[in-house]
Amino acid sequence: MAFLQLKEVEKTFFTYDSVTTAVEKINLTINKGEFISIIGPSGCGKTTLLSLISGLLHPTEGQILLDGKQIEKPTPETGYMLQQDYLFPWLTIEQNITLGLKTMGKTKSEEKELAYELLDTLGLSDKTKHYPSQLSGGMRQRVALVRMLSTDPKLLLLDEPFSALDYQTKLKLENLVFSTIRTHGKTAILVTHDIGEALAMSDRVILLTHRPGSIQQEFSVAHHLAEELPFNVRLDSQFTPLFQEVWKEMESLEKQT
Amino acid sequence: MKSKHEEMHRQFKKQTKTRTLQIRAVQILILLSFFIGWETAASARWIDPLLFSSPSRVWDLFLVRVQDGSLIMHTSVTLFETILGFLLGTFLGTFLAAILWWSPFLSRVLDPYIVILNSMPKVALGPILIVGLGPGFTSIIAMGALISLVITTMVVYNAFREVDDNYVKVMKSFGATKRQSFFGAIFPASYPTMISTLKVNVGLAWVGVIVGEFLVSKQGLGYMIIYGFQVFNFTLVMLSLVIIAILATCMYQTVELVEKKLIRHRT
User: Fold this and answer.
1) Residue among B169, B174, B188 minimizing CB distance to A104
2) Predicted TM-score (pTM) of this structure
């Protein structure tokens, strides 16, 4: 069942003295409940692609359909998680995680229940009255995860959400994000430059070419691995050959330029 | 082990306290020696008491003026004008900044005019204000507001623009309108800049109001200064200066209190 469809998508940016095509000829179909990763050399338009799907940007050409409907503008149906947590420093954790609900005009306590539940599962229920500056980097990114999920979005867009964290925290958070997303049966797209992370977390990995980014190749992760927690995937005997396959492909991209 | 640390902590606290006390003592010493020096210099005729007055004369005049009620009247007039000018300048400036943020077209159109207005010495507009608004407290308040208005607009507008785009991105991802993005992210993210603008505006409002009172010359501390100058009563001038210094400090402290309340949680 096609949940998200990208048809011949192209995005070109214009400035007074330049025309830059960031991505072109993107054809992609994502099914409900799938976890997709997008990797590629830096500057290949990964983030642009996410912004297009979120509705923050509009494609120059082509169509993006979510549940069969064209995406016009950002909606709470799509959650967005950024490289850094971008929690609002002037709000408490409680106010931060209900920010989306407040924006949507949902302020009743039963509407906020999900947010508090999630905060509890992620082990932060004692921090509601704290301010972001009182929390560690890993905790803050967990709060950002709760903030994203609080509005119960159908599609999650993760823009290198672990890149600013130290390695240990990153591994733990990968597991946590993965299992949280799986339990809630969400569809997710992860943008990363870390091949290992992409393989460990997703069902499919999409490799983009240099700018203008288009789809170079698609790698499928074996079903039993895709179901496994990211940390265990990294330890699996099938992980290294797969990693090397993707690595070689990326290397060959580098040589082309 | 634990008691050792407790002992060290006690020592540390004691040291911190002593240092604070030392600083306060020196501060008070400077103040006292200033007034004592001034008094001695005047009574020993090292300086001309007719020009520079002396603390005792200022104090005597203070008592006289408090008793006949004129000091309270002049002070309250000036204070009223300053606070109103300060608030008007700050709020209108912030409001204009919000409009400029809202409409990039307007902000580009108005850019050269704002630059001109900003480089213009606002007190030079005094005579026009008085002609336009009448020689009363309206034009003095206008002067107090005008002097801080343009700079507030510029600084706050820049603060709005420099807010990290990603905060707005977070708001937008929840489907926020432009209005929600502004009040949810842009405005609170600019609190620190707004507070420092407030601090500058306290000083500017006093400049505007005192100059305004020089020009209108009806009442207020500015009037007391210009009157004292004209009749060569420098004790009156000094008295006004001391009162202005005290009041301006109080206003500044109030702003700092607001600051502590608004941005206590930022690192």
Assistant:
1) B174
2) 0.83
